[in-house]
Amino acid sequence: MLFSLIFLCTTISSSMASLQLGFYQQTCPLAESIVRLTVTEAVAVDPGLAPALLRMHFHDCFVRGCDGSVLLESTPTNPSERESPANKGSLRGFEVIDITKANLEWQCPQTVSCADILAFAARDAVLLTGGIEYALPSGRRDGRVSSAPEVVKNLPSPVFDAEKLAQNFASKGFTRREMVTLSGAHSFGVSHCSSFVNRLYSFNATHAQDPSMDPSLAARLRSMCPGRAGGPNPTVPFVNRFPHKLDNKYYRNLKKMKGLLTSDQTLLSSQSTAGIVWRHAKHHHKWTDEFAAAMVKLGSVGVLTGDEGEVRKNCGFVN
Ligand code: HEM
Ligand SMILES: *[C@@H]1O[C@H](CO)[C@@H](O)[C@H](O)[C@H]1NC(C)=O
Hints:
By secondary structure, this protein is mostly helical. It folds into 2 domains: 13-155, Peroxidase, domain 1 (Orthogonal Bundle); 162-295, Peroxidase, domain 2 (Orthogonal Bundle), CATH 1.10.420. The protein is built from 13 helices and 2 strands; from the N terminus they run H-H-H-H-H-H-H-H-E-H-E-H-H-H-H. A two-stranded antiparallel ribbon has the order 1-2. The longest helix is centred in the middle third of the chain and has 17 residues, at 114-130. The model is unreliable at 1-15 (pLDDT under 50). Bound molecules: protoporphyrin IX containing FE (HEM) and 2-acetamido-2-deoxy-beta-D-glucopyranose. Residues 18-319 form the Plant heme peroxidase family profile domain. This is Peroxidase. Substrate binds at residue 156. It is found in: Secreted.
């Protein structure tokens, strides 16, 4: 009887554990400031690291939850998430997480999880480039599994239409509106030509180029992106003006048919999302509020807490 009572209590307490604001206040009071300092310095040297860190957090959270699985290195028998075509060659900023982790291990050994470091880093990237500030609950624990094939099964594809995007985000607990709101992240950073070249040369049987792309943008992109496979695959900014600033110009660009990916422009083409695009294009402040709330939600997807998982010593390797 006593045994089963204790058992019951411990199961309840571990399953009830949830993220908390200021989780490290007692155990590592400088944790959030150390992340902010490291990210600020890194972004000052290379502004492209801000979008890179935001994207890395998104890719972490949609695959096995925000558990730092995206940071794990492959082993000889297990290709990790980093090996997936959705990540390899385009995900970057790992060194920022590693430097931050090294600083934190020195301050408070084995206390701050890699998943939390990445979530804080994405939050700081958003503040530095968008002036959007939000309090972020923490206490995520690091997972021990990272598997390349899981990435494409869980992340949305750049050729998805609005319906498929909505389904993908719904499977992670997001509304259609939150999906459109988070897509505003494509107002900064870059994409490789390979992610949108399908729109430029042989779109379908009747149209050489995607008719939902502004023809002058398509022409400019063709001059940068060769049509044949295996050629060079440079990167192009999502938005030309102020490519390092996170704001609602993404939505204003969509209204000019200047979305880069199929998954961007479809948000205006589709009846079910066009209205949200129009509102976000018009009301910057409202979009920033909704973006902040959606980021907090993104950071809570499938998290490990309490005594689940571990706190890695090195973000690239399980303990
Ligand atoms: C809606 C579904 C989404 C799709 C299909 C998608 C797809 C992509 C693709 C294909 C790229 C370019 C990769 C490359 O070729 O280099 C990219 C870049 C990026 N994505 Fe997304 N994404 C989506 C949602 C999001 C969300 C929710 C966020 C964050 C909140 C995000 C943040 C970014 C950022 C910041 C970049 C630029 C990365 C850099 O400059 O290094 N994306 N995305
Ligand atoms: C090609 O794409 C356009 C625009 O999406 C569409 O209207 C047209 O029906 C498509 N043609 C074929 C043959 O699929």
